[in-house]
Design brief:
The structure is a homodimer of 290-residue chains.
Chain A: H1 3-21, H2 30-40, H3 47-58, H4 63-84, E1 94-95, E2 98-99, H5 101-105, H6 107-126, H7 131-145, H8 150-160, H9 168-193, H10 198-225, H11 236-239, H12 245-249, H13 251-269, H14 276-287
Antiparallel strand pairs in A: 1-2
């Protein structure tokens, strides 16, 4: 099957699973489920659940078993964006061309909708029928998302703002936590659903680590070269006084680095069976325009 | 063993478990672990973990097995207070006589510390060595804390502010979610750690439901009659234009109701073995001054 078709298939499974596990609006607090849905159904690329499902598929796993984990990881990602956009954080009014959750529902509901999405993710993961997988999925999700994972990255990010002398090594450390942790968790959860071997887990992690960093550097490159039609205004990082890979390394070196990292990711796949889709995914992210 | 001694013993187990599962400060984001610790070590009454441990003990369970769940439920409670105190929510500067987390660390870190506490709770629960218990504990914790539990109650609360014509039934519905859900979860997790029977779970839940509501009504009573030395200024609910059990029912009826609910809680215990401690706990909460 062709890459685009395969991607659409994984995305469909992810979207259906997300829709299935979203709460229904309840009388008295309809707005909560609405805000959660608004945050989740805003046209995200679904990179994390697609990656999770592709890894599961590559290792010969059952995609139905991976569905809940795919929904859970996207819920964690969505919550992080809702809280990240808040006035006390990045203070963003738009995301993917739409008003952010707090602009539509107010700050209080946005905080609570984020909290509820995070909690729902664990409800979904812990509710996986196989207890061993449910416990491990919940544990790994928490480790990737929490105070020694994604949230740590957010804190490092906050503390870096406006500081001069930020180095490449500092940015890399930050992104290992901020975006890398959850992308690696996606790979791990895909492997878990497929009962991957230790060796497979090792190369999956190599692939995801390189992919996650390449993705982030590409984000910074697009902030300079990208098109405003895809939501984030061009040059917003520079305006916010944020150090980026481009400001630290220069545009050409940053581009070189994404190519090198993509290469590392692709090499890790050579140790795994059926890595064709994930190879094309890495190349797609390298060449993406949004 | 006497009640006070027993309470101290449970509280000690809870405190030790919380300390054990709190993250250590890490270079680059020390402030995150610090803010989490500040939120958790502020002299809380530890009602939820003590209740959890007491239920486990009553049902003949191993308190060591219940330790992680006790820490996890207090982390969920602590996160809810940190987010609840934020300017966009209740905008409280003090809690238990100390500046709130966002007053000390800033709003951004307070949001992230709350997120990290919630996530850590699931890391702890999902990390319980027995996978069946770990998965169920994580699931029940998420159900009690999330969009059809505690967070739903917060949303109902927000939407009730400043509204006239709030009824007793409305307040009761709100509190069933807002505080009741997590208190009932404490009881369930205690039963889970002790492998309680279905009948035991039923009466534990009756006890916790009545206790949770009585606790909340008592809170409203203390807001009118209580002493400022325990943190919350007297009459803060009335100042915030919040409907309370006292404003809706009147002080005497509210007091009657807490007595009736305490009675219901105590009656449920008669169907359970060794309910002496939990009976005294219910009476303590009825007669508490803070």
């Amino acid at each position: 099957m062709e890459f685009t078709q395969k991607f659409a298939e994984y995305k469909k499974i992810a979207d259906e699973s997300i829709a299935k596990f979203l709460p229904r609006p309840q009388p008295g607090f309809e707005v909560l489920a609405e805000a959660m849905e608004y945050a989740l159904l805003g046209g995200g690329k679904r990179i994390r659940p697609v990656l999770l499902l592709a890894v599961c598929d590559m290792c010969g796993g059952d995609l139905n078993l991976a569905g809940p984990a795919a929904a859970a990881i996207e819920m964690v990602h969505a919550y992080s964006l809702v809280h990240d956009d808040l006035p006390a954080m990045d203070n963003d009014d738009f995301r993917r061309g739409r008003p952010t959750v707090h602009k539509v529902y107010g700050e209080d509901i946005a905080i609570l909708a984020g909290d509820a999405l995070l909690t729902r993710a664990f409800e979904v993961a812990a509710g996986i029928p196989n207890a061993e997988i449910a416990a491990k999925a919940s544990l790994w999700l928490a480790q990737g998302a929490g105070c020694e994972g994604m949230v740590a990255g957010q804190v490092i990010d906050l503390q870096s703002e406006g500081k001069s002398g930020i180095t490449y090594e500092h940015l890399r450390q930050m992104d290992l936590f901020k975006t890398g942790a959850l992308i690696r968790t996606a790979g791990k959860l895909g492997g878990l659903a497929a009962d991957a071997s230790e060796t497979q887990f090792k190369f999956i992690d190599q692939y995801c680590s390189a992919l996650g960093l390449a993705f982030q550097i590409q984000d910074d490159i697009l902030d300079v070269t990208g098109s405003e039609e895809f939501g984030k205004p061009i040059g917003s990082d520079a305006e916010n006084g944020k150090a980026t890979y481009v400001s630290v390394l220069g545009l050409e070196k940053a581009k070189d680095l994404t190519r090198q990292l993509t290469d590392t990711a692709v090499k890790a796949l050579q140790q795994l069976p059926n890595g064709e889709f994930l190879k094309e995914l890495a190349l797609l992210l390298l060449h993406r325009k949004q």
